[in-house]
Amino acid sequence: MIGVAEPVFAIANIDVTLRAMRTIGLLLSIVLLGACGISPKSSETVLDLRTSYDFDICPLHNSRLEEGVEPIEYSHISFGYEYSGIRKRLFPLANIGDITHKEARTALVLYCPECRKAKEKWLMEWNEKECKKERNSE
Ligand SMILES: [Zn+2]
User: What does the pLDDT profile of the chain (138 residues) look like in tens digits?
Assistant: First the structure.
């Protein structure tokens, strides 16, 4: 009877030892990555903004909101002080290119396809104006 119980005990001990080694290895790699300035959390964090609204239809365009995955960039083109008002008035739910976050690189968003079209149109017009300004200043 003891002969049967002992191997089971030994296997259990090996299993505990392996688990402990894996845990130590994982902790060590986290510490090493942290020392290198690489935080696994920052590269993997996904910002979930899908719950930002309690409606699923764009109040401006009456279009159903869709889900999208958007990259988050640290720097944005400065469209001037009026941009915030323009965005709210013309494309409040475009949710593209305006997301900032310290840690996350990607965001899950809800967006209105018509807002995105409106933003695209506004961006093209803005680019044309900026090009004209540059041409006139030369
Ligand atoms: Zn819209």
Answer: 444 444 444 444 445 444 554 544 444 443 444 443 444 444 578 999 998 889 999 999 999 999 999 988 776 678 888 899 999 999 999 999 888 888 888 999 999 999 999 999 999 999 998 889 888 887
- Whole-number Å distance, alpha carbon 117 to ligand 1 midpoint, is 9
Please give the distance, rounded to the nearest whole angstrom, from the Cα atom of residue 85 to the centre of ligand 1. Answer: 15
Question: Domain ranges in the chain?
Answer: 2-38, 41-137
- The protein residues having their C-beta less than 5 angstroms from ligand 1 (an ion) are 58, 60-61, 93, 112, 114-115
Rounded to the nearest 10 degrees, how much is the dihedral formed by the CA atoms of 75, 79, 82, 88?
-70
* pTM, to two decimals: 0.64
| 104: Cβ contacts below 8 Å, ≥ 6 apart | 42, 45, 46, 47, 72
